[in-house]
Amino acid sequence: MRDLKSARIPESNTKGLRLRVQLLFGLFLALLGTAFGRAVYLQVFQQEKLRGLAQDQYVRQIDIPARRGDIFDRRGTPLAQSVEVDSIWVDPSMLPNVQQAARQLARAVHLDGNDVAARLSRAKRFAWVKRQAKPQEVEAVKALGLPGLGFTKEPKRFYPQRELGAHIVGMVGTDGHGLEGLELAFEDELSGQNSRTPGFRDAKGRKLMVQGAMDPLERQGAAVTLTLDRHLQYVAEKALAKAVEDAKAVAGMAVVLDPRTGELLALANNPRFNPNTPEDGVKNAIRNRAALDAFEPGSTMKAFVVAAALEQKAITPDTLFFCENGAFRIGRHTINDTHPHGWLNAQGILQVSSNICAAKVAEALGREKMVAGYHAFGFAERTGLALTGESRGVIPFPKSDISLATQSFGQGMTSTAVQLAAAYGALANDGVLMRPYLVSKVVDPDGVVLLENQPTELRRVVSQRVARQVVGMLESVVVKGGTAPKAAMDDYRVAGKTGTAQKADPVARGYSDKRIASFAGMVPAEAPRAVILVVVDEPKTDVYGGNVAAPAFKEIATAAMAHLAVPPSRTVAPAEVAAAAAPVVPPPAPKALAKAVPVRAGLEDAVTETPEPGTVRVPDVQGQAGREAVVKLLAAALEPQLQGSGQVVSQTPPAGALVEKGARVTLELATRQ
């Protein structure tokens, strides 16, 4: 028979178990509710904060730099381009021996071992070995087989023309940003708009792109087209380099400008540098002197003083000035000419470059009008080439007589080479000053024109009549008897002006014995297509612009006329050229002063006119022996004055000049080599 007492015990255990289950269920339900509440709190109320923290651990926005835009010359020849190259990095924590690895890497990429070792020692997980490495350096590093090496593509600026136009184009730094020249001036346009794309960061902190590389065309900078002509730039740099080398000078500048449009066809500097390897260049060789630096231009300014005086009717082409036989005292100062001269008209002043008579022309013009004339020609104002650091030059108001005199021949004032070329461009362009410019247009990758320059007239400086008169006078500078016969060309008429300026000494607050030699010319003179300026800084072998700078002008002009397909000038007979030389009339006695007869420019007029009583024509004695020349001059009732020995190489006044009887004729003699 069953025991009923013992049968009730399981009922009591069942109730306890149920209670425990209920308690556990309640506990778990509470925990689940708490977890759910926490999840709701985190997902709803803390969502943005937690998402940011999570993304900060593994998601990164990767900057994709735009491919830098190209720079071209006027005919589409690339002057600056960007290419993709490898940059090398390493994770120092993965290197078994940092010092040994640093030495191996330094040898492979041609860097200093101590420098590489220092960089690797400072870094924990990332260090650059070399950015923008050469292909052979990349292969050498890969051959080392070191752990932790990485390679990434970066854009590198490449200059396919090397030194050609380097001062204008400029250069960029390792980070791809412009440092000099147009690379700096057009940094925003050339660099383009950088892109950003999402990516992951792996366990080692390396950035991984998740969408692949973007189309390079979608991240490319704008293209810049210049007015420079690669061929003329090459010719200008070559001729300038030869002139600087021959003269043993410290530097040089050359400008080729189209006077009809203001376009700069060439802008050369010497010494040169290669922007691909700027560290190999000469110190201070990077500076674009032709566009940025101001200097005292010297006698090249005389043409503008004469032009302003003619425009203001302060003088006429036939007005005579006495040049004091080479020395003219103004207060405590004495102005000197290179050679003594007597009476000269405007053409003669330019032909022989008389400082004394230029000062007298400035005196006739007046202080206010001379300064206003300089400003009208564009001096003391920036040309607007868009180059950082362009000088504007200085034209101080000449308060004293000596300041007025010195500024008339380009001392005591400053100008840039581009300003000077543009001013001669105004004379060549029938008196209209054009704005010089260097950048033709800037176009973005979509073909949208961001900037476009067109020929722009700034103002009329002088009348067409005066401009053509002055250009005609400047033709006498390059004939025999002028200061620059070495600039004369066989097939083209040339007009120009020499300059030889003293350099200021900022320490001694005066002028040193150093010089700046220059020649500014236009060709062909009857309808100029090019204005060419050559400046040689501190020449040693010779200091005169007619000997130092004029030959370089001729070389550039010869190439420019052929390249621009300019037809030769009309044939000019040698006698006509000689007759075009400026009149040089020795100072007559006071009683005979009123009888001084200015020489006419045209040979035909001179031949047909009847000489007045008491006057005589100067015979042509060039090429004759000194004794024969003396006899011929005495027979013509003229007084010969000889300089040197041998055969006559030049005579003053020139052959055919109408002078008073008994006038002195200076003969320069030299032994034929």
Automatic annotation (TrEMBL):
GO terms for cellular component: plasma membrane. CDD domains: PASTA_Pbp2x-like_2 (cd06575). It comes from the Bacteria. Coiled coil: none annotated. The lineage of its organism: Bacteria, Pseudomonadati, Myxococcota, Myxococcia, Myxococcales. SUPFAM superfamilies: beta-lactamase/transpeptidase-like (SSF56601), Penicillin binding protein dimerisation domain (SSF56519), Penicillin-binding protein 2x (pbp-2x), c-terminal domain (SSF54184). Residues 610-671 form the PASTA domain. It is found in: Membrane. GO terms for biological process: cell wall organization. This is PASTA domain-containing protein. GO terms for molecular function: carboxypeptidase activity; penicillin binding. Keywords: Carboxypeptidase, Hydrolase, Membrane, Protease.
